[in-house]
Amino acid sequence: MNTTATDMPFAHPVSVAPMMDWTDRHDRFFLRLISRRALLYTEMVTTAAILHGDRQRLLGHEPAEHPLALQLGGSDPAELARAARIGADYGYDEINLNVGCPSDRVQSGRFGACLMAEPELVAEGVAAMRAAVDIPVTVKTRIGIDDRDSYEELHGFVAGLVKAGTERLIVHARKAWLNGLSPKQNREIPPLRYDVVYRLKADCPDLVIVINGGIRKLDEIDEHLRHVDGVMIGREAYQNPYLLAEIDGRYYGEPDEAPARKQVVEELIPYIRARQDEGVPLNSITRHVLGLFQGLPGARAWRRHLSENAHRPEADASLLAEAAARVRAG
To answer: Which of 43, 45, 35 has its CA nearest to residue 15?
Structure first.
């Protein structure tokens, strides 16, 4: 299959999921060297942090990271609207509301997946953000929570979001257990129900729906795109980032070949030098690139050389070239 963006109902058939502690600005810059077109998301940022914290640290990004969406965590409609406006002013291309994270910490802040139990509040928040910004407002959710996992309840929840002005819905095709499972277990134990997401798309044909959860291969993306409008890749894009190398040509019709892995390393080195000049620790960047050579001879040596040396005070960007020399291909 070779589905391009021109064949799709919207411009982003492939995206990379927001992942706490992973999809920071350094990871996003690195991923952008592999794919120019896939839609990238920030880590979740709470409305309180944006309204009261260091906005440049939280929201600053490189122009090269676009297209780029900001994911918000929060439940107060007025605060969501203010944070969305700030995000739009920082140049983000989309504002996304997290209604899918099941962690205890997120629940204690009254945001994330627990909000599925408060559909009216979520709709009010979406409407407030929609009135505050001119860029798309989207929602990332689960198919249900705890024992509230009937299709009828999900459909009613989504109907409220559509009425409030949601322009795109990203659905993690698992329900979440709010008590008794860790966030990691909530990504693995509840069964994937892709059929539920497909049914939702069939019943809401005018709503752009993106599917998420357990997607690791390009042929899996192909199959999902037969049923829904887009696919969001999560941990596979982090652990095996070069998976994105075929995205631009396969789904966006880009004529150019993807850069080789070692070319990605070469293009990343100037970025690292600039960040180190600003005081950014080397290992806060290199931790994101450990999977670049996954599956190739020497991949373990690449990971080991970076892991064992990036924390050293004298280490600099040349460490990447040294590590890449240990890989026989790529």
So the answer is: 35
